[in-house]
Amino acid sequence: MAKPILTSQDTDFPQWYQDVVAKAELAENGPARGTIVIRPYGYRIWELLQQILDERIKATGHENAYFPLFIPMSFLEREADHVEGFSPELAVVTHGGGKELGEPLVVRPTSETVINHTFSRWIQSHRDLPVLINQWANVVRWELRPRLFLRTTEFLWQEGHTAHATSEEAQEETLKMLGVYRDVVRESLAIAALTGEKSPAERFAGADRTFTVEGMMRDGKALQMGTSHDLGQNFAKAFDIVFAAEDGSEHHVWQTSWGVSTRLVGAVIMAHGDDFGLRLPPAIAPYQVVVMPLGGDDAQSTVEAAMQLVRDLEAAGHRVKLDDRLHVGFGRRAVDWELKGVPVRVEIGPRDLESGTAVVVRRDTREKASVELERLIQTIGERLVEIQQALLDETEAQRLTRTSLISDLDEFKSTIAAEPGLYVAGWCGSASCEEAFGDGTGASIRCIDPFEELPGSEPRCLACDNLASHQAVIAKAY
Ligand SMILES: [Zn+2]
Fold it and tell me: What residues have CB less than 8 Å from 408, skipping those under 6 apart?
């Protein structure tokens, strides 16, 4: 076996992450600090995820549209919390066409302002509601501590923006889209994430309430994977989005926004990868199966058998790669595909052919099995289903194992340093207690009152011992 080509996860998880992103050819740094070049293999993962999500977004009644990259600075200033929250991250264009601009333009950090400006012209009557729009786009947020996929100055995402006649409808929409994210993360990314509300300190700038999908990575840290915001009437008032009700009375609309980004690719890497590389869930794997004919005296017939197998697997609806690099050593080729996380590898050698079999290797468990050629297509199909489920089960088990109830602040602080994970505690709701959780630990409240069942927390606040008003899930996070 070749020597490991990645830093081991136990030695240095962040270094492992950097190694695997580079060596699996997912992405690299762009020339401007904080920017990302997404390489074809990484981009394909994003594309597959995007297709799945786009279908779900359309199936829930939303339509795609596109809004401008540049936003007048004055638009951001209309919603006080919004501009305050985003100011430190803004990229601002002051010159265009060789001249100083009359008004600076912001490169969108998110599109509430420009979209709501447009909504104010689209919406007049209750008959115009609801408006259900999604945009696939790039956004820019100046990033001081960039990390490929997780935090980059420019990233790709979708942002949904909706307008409704009532507060109840907007609340329902906020939770509906949170549910879509949770399901896609669970079913396609095979990550058993938690969902719940963000504390006021972690809320989106300009929202009344923010809900989040929080995944746990293999080092026990949390990663925010998507958010859904109930915007109330904050932007409607800032942009004067008013509709006439049936009785002729005028009202501001109620709104939501929600988004997930290329960060999800980072989540897949960190939730499933091991010391041998990526382990991709079949649903979003660029290649679900790689077929490797072995060289030797009878290379011709193994290559032909491999090509036939590729055609049969493609006909069965799988994404397949033929690796016929016979000039490259077998071990090296196997290591390459493990690194790239291809769920199933099929090895066909002359001796296998003689006995009418092929070797099927699962990437998740690295188990090898000899399978009769007649049963190969069916077996591979079954393996893919099993792997998708097994990866999900693993994240679920890991999350449960690494979730602890905690009721003593000092104990919490010493424990989380040694054993990163999710800590469930009571919280009184005060900002100072929230700060106390993070003080010296670097941890934060990832969500409150999660929808998933967790062990019941203490009825008293972890920091101040007053009566708790929320169950808080506290963790270190990316
Ligand atoms: Zn408290």
Answer: 462
d(C-alpha 373, C-alpha 353), whole Å:
8
Query: E strand or H helix at 447, and its extent?
Result: strand 444-448
Cis, peptide link before residue 4, omega less than 30° from 0: no
String of DSSP letters for 234-281 = HHHHHTT-EEE-TTS-EEE-EEEEEEEETHHHHHHHHHH-BTTB----
Ligand 1 centroid to residue 452 C-alpha, Å: 23
Residues 226-265 pLDDT 10s: 999 999 999 999 999 999 999 999 999 999 999 999 999 9
Q: Compute the distance from residue 468 Cα to the ligand 1 centre, in Å.
A: 7
* Ligand 1 centroid, distance to 466 Cα (angstroms): 6
Q: What is the pTM of this model?
A: 0.96
**Sequence-ordered strand ranges (E) for 129-271:** 131-140, 154-164, 194-197, 209-216, 222-232, 242-244, 250-252, 254-261
Residues in the chain: 478
Contacts of 44 (CB under 8 A, 6+ apart): 286
Q: In order of start, what are the domains of the chain with their CATH numbers?
A: 13-272 (3.30.930.10), 287-382 (3.40.50.800), 403-475 (3.30.110.30)
Q: What whole-number distance in Å separates Cα of residue 426 and Cα of residue 443?
A: 15
| Mean pLDDT calculated for residue range 121-137 | 98
| Rounded CA separation 474/202 (Å) | 12
**DSSP state letter for 337:** H
Dist. CA 463 → ligand 1 center (Å): 5
